[in-house]
């Protein structure tokens, strides 16, 4: 470990310039920003308008009522001048907002960008504008109040494409605003790092470096592991400590605790796949996946739940009896011991306490969630963007340093192209891999592209372990010429819907651990282990505000100011039905096909209703369900907060309205932070991708060890399950070495 000096804040990780904005014309960008301004319009009081075309005027009475609402509902409301500045801001005047929007489109599939460009062209023509808005004037020339009205009409249009278009525009605006608006952050009291910030010790992984050359560099090892996340890191430690030469490669980069947590913009860029979020092809699901040194274990929320007995029995009944044995429990116990998993030290924040106390009032099953925090208190809500204290004992803090001490080597910034095979003996034997390494710049950063070396690397190895994650592991197998029809199929996502409650308490919801409690009352709604868990969510602003219900520009801006008093929750399904992943034909990046089935959506909906009840009995003053066409529940002033009487007629009527609205995709936002199953383990090659020991069917020396090998959804946050699989598979690799010797 390398000692670090005290910091007042993490060392900033700068963003590179936006790559290019040439995928939209200047006119198309102008149209897009005209629509984004309609989402978050500059709002002024009647009589103070200075730009009739680009300001939204409201009456003096409505304006002052809006301020009074915020003044009386917030513990630390803004003064009137700051409130006026906030409401009156035009986001497209902010270079930071503009850059954020343009950066959002860098990783959007080309086909999707072309579709949006075509829509923008339509809106920029008189005929197209008339068809889509009802006005013959091109949309960018409409005054702001009409653009705002058009956007509101789209959200409830009978024409399916218009609500989808509205949701896309709204989400982009809300994400870019909530990530980077400094005035907004000031008004709610949010900062990018904890007030008592003290970084944990840095660790020098001594990453291999290569000089510039047209010739490939060759590295020889016993085992090469693709991916440094929860699967790869465990394999690295187990095999290095068993005496094997181990090389871990990852396309992501390492960031020290002194650089963490990052701000919301840099964290999205450097820590997550696709610069923050992957959208399923129909836009139904927003998928979060880690993409950095340590993988998902760097950005997850510390939840360390074990796979439940009914899931393990299901897998055993599918011809994988190992999962019902004490040996598999031993794998679970080992990985928990390494990270100091425990629930005895937990300090619940307001959100976690709502789950526990509300469930007790309603007679529901709930418990504390064990954390992988070394049996220590870890009251940090910003670990979604990296753990600065190093209190979260994920791959980069525990497993990979242990592997390093046992002799493992590491390469960051290594994009693997394909696995190499020796087929001279008639079998397909993995003998290494090839890929492209991209160095850091001369400042040790990732910004100065002209200073970054690119070089082809060839790794020669006796064994190859693919731990690239559920989205990338199947793509690497496909790029390497494997033909198993199950590769990329069987995708489980644990789809979620959201509920937010606004409480009277001054919560500051970004403080405290993200998830410390779970309600399991509804985990088995079909009698076969499919249902939902009810959990809190991380409350960094963009995580929830990017998809917050948008009713109008004024309501959104006011609701965003109430964020300090809010807590968010998810209804997370153990999905029975599946999707698939495949490579984009142009970029090769993962494309996801997943639509939550009627069966799974019904379970998620039951969880939404349950979450609303939890918020209600715990005294929420407003409850927001992220369902299309629904309004928030507002508690009557005469109603006693905290009552357990969920049969209140107004509340029951509101719940009925939620059930009527439903959660049908694609207009309902679903989220996913768990991806599983695309290289599933099976008893035969006719039903899966890897055998019961983790070896890829029809190959020798090739293994997969990550959440992609789950036979079905785990039903709990998958870190511990993934690590236990990896522990088991790594020990099988070690046994194979012994047998070959």
Description:
With 741 residues, the protein is of the alpha/beta class. The protein has 22 helices and 21 strands. Among the domains are: 163 residues, no CATH class; 177 residues, no CATH class. It is 34% helix and 14% strand. The strands form 5 sheets. Strands 3, 4, 8, 9, 10, 11 and 21 form a 7-stranded mixed β-sheet that branches. Strands 7-13-14-15-12-18-19 form a 7-stranded antiparallel β-sheet. Helix 4 crosses helix 8 and helix 10 packs parallel to helix 16. It is globular. The two termini are 35 Å apart. It catalyses: a long-chain primary fatty alcohol + O2 = a long-chain fatty aldehyde + H2O2.
Topology of this structure?
Blueprint: H1 26-39, E1 43-45, E2 56-58, H2 60-73, H3 80-88, H4 95-104, H5 110-123, H6 126-133, H7 144-155, H8 161-180, H9 182-188, E3 217-226, H10 230-241, E4 246-249, H11 264-271, E5 278-279, E6 285-287, H12 296-299, H13 309-317, H14 326-339, H15 350-362, E7 366-368, H16 395-405, E8 409-411, E9 414-422, E10 429-438, E11 454-466, H17 473-479, E12 496-502, E13 517-519, E14 532-536, H18 541-545, H19 553-561, E15 566-573, E16 580-583, E17 590-593, H20 598-617, E18 622-625, E19 633-634, H21 649-661, E20 670-672, E21 702-704, H22 719-740
Parallel strand pairs: 1-2, 3-4, 3-11, 4-8, 6-20, 11-21
Antiparallel strand pairs: 5-6, 7-13, 9-10, 10-11, 12-15, 12-18, 13-14, 14-15, 16-17, 18-19
Helix pairs in contact: 1-5, 1-7, 1-8, 4-8, 7-8, 10-16, 10-22, 14-22, 15-20, 20-21
């Amino acid at each position: 470990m390398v000692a670090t000096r005290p910091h007042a804040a993490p060392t900033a990780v700068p963003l590179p310039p936006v790559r290019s904005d040439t995928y939209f014309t200047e006119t198309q960008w102008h149209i897009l920003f005209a629509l984004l301004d309609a989402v978050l319009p500059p709002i002024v009081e009647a009589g103070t308008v200075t730009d009739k075309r680009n300001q939204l005027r409201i009456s003096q009475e409505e304006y002052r009522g809006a301020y009074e609402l915020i003044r009386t509902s917030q513990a630390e409301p803004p003064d009137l001048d700051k409130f006026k500045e906030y409401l009156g801001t035009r986001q497209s005047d902010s270079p930071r907002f503009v850059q954020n929007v343009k950066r959002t489109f860098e990783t959007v599939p080309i086909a999707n960008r072309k579709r949006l460009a075509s829509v923008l062209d339509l809106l920029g023509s008189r005929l197209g504008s008339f068809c889509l808005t009802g006005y013959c004037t091109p949309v960018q020339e409409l005054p702001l109040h009409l653009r705002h009205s058009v956007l509101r009409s789209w959200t409830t249009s009978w024409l399916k494409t218009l609500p989808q278009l509205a949701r896309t525009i709204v989400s982009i605006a809300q994400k870019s605003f909530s990530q980077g608006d400094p005035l907004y952050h000031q008004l709610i009291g949010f900062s990018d790092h904890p007030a008592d910030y003290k970084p944990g010790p840095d660790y020098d992984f001594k990453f291999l470096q290569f000089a510039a050359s047209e010739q490939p560099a060759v590295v020889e090892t016993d085992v090469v592991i693709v991916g440094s996340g929860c699967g790869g890191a465990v394999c690295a430690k187990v095999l290095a400590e068993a005496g094997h030469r181990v090389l871990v490669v990852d396309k992501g980069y390492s960031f020290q605790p002194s650089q963490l947590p990052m701000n919301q913009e840099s964290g999205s860029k450097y820590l997550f796949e696709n610069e923050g979020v992957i959208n399923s092809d129909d836009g139904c699901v927003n998928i979060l996946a880690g993409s950095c040194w340590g993988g998902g274990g760097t950005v997850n929320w510390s939840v360390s739940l074990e796979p439940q007995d009914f899931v393990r029995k299901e897998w055993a009944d599918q011809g994988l009896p190992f999962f019902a044995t004490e040996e598999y429990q031993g794998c679970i116990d080992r990985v928990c011991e390494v990270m100091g998993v425990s629930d005895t030290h937990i300090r619940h924040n307001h959100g976690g306490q709502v789950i526990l106390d509300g469930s007790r009032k309603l007679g529901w099953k709930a418990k504390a969630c064990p954390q992988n925090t070394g049996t220590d208190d870890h009251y940090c809500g910003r670990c979604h963007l990296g753990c600065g204290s190093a209190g979260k004992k994920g791959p980069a803090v525990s497993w990979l340093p242990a592997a390093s001490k046992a002799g493992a080597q590491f390469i960051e910034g290594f994009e693997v192209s394909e696995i190499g095979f020796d087929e001279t003996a008639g079998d397909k034997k993995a003998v290494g891999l090839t890929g492209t390494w991209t160095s850091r710049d001369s400042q040790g950063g990732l910004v100065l592209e002209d200073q970054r070396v690119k070089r082809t690397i060839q790794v020669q190895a006796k064994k190859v372990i693919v731990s690239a994650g559920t989205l990338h592991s199947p793509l690497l197998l496909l790029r390497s010429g494997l033909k198993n029809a199950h590769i990329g199929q069987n995708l489980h996502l644990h789809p979620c819907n959201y509920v937010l409650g606004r409480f009277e308490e001054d919560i500051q919801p970004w403080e405290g651990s993200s998830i410390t409690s779970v309600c399991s009352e509804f985990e088995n709604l079909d009698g076969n282990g499919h249902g939902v868990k009810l959990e809190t969510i991380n409350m960094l602003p963009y995580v929830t505000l990017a998809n917050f219900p948008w009713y109008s520009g004024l309501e959104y801006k006011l609701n965003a100011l109430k964020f300090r008093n809010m807590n968010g929750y998810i209804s997370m399904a153990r999905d029975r039905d599946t999707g698939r992943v495949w490579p984009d034909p142009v970029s090769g990046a993962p494309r996801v096909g997943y639509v939550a089935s009627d069966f799974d959506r019904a379970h998620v909906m039951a969880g939404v209703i349950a979450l609303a009840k939890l918020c209600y009995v715990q005294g929420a003053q407003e409850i927001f369900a992220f369902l299309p066409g629904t309004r928030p529940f507002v508690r009557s002033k005469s109603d006693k907060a905290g009552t357990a009487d969920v049969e209140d007629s107004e509340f029951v009527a509101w719940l009925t309205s939620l059930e009527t609205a439903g959660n049908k995709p694609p207009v309902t936002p679903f989220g996913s932070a768990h991806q599983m199953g695309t290289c599933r383990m099976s008893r035969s090659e006719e039903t899966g991708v890897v055998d019961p020991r983790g070896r890829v069917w029809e190959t020798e020396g090739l293994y997969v060890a990550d959440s992609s090998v789950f036979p079905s959804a785990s039903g709990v946050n998958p870190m511990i399950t993934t690590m236990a699989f990896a522990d088991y598979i790594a020990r099988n690799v070690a046994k194979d070495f012994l047998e070959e010797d």
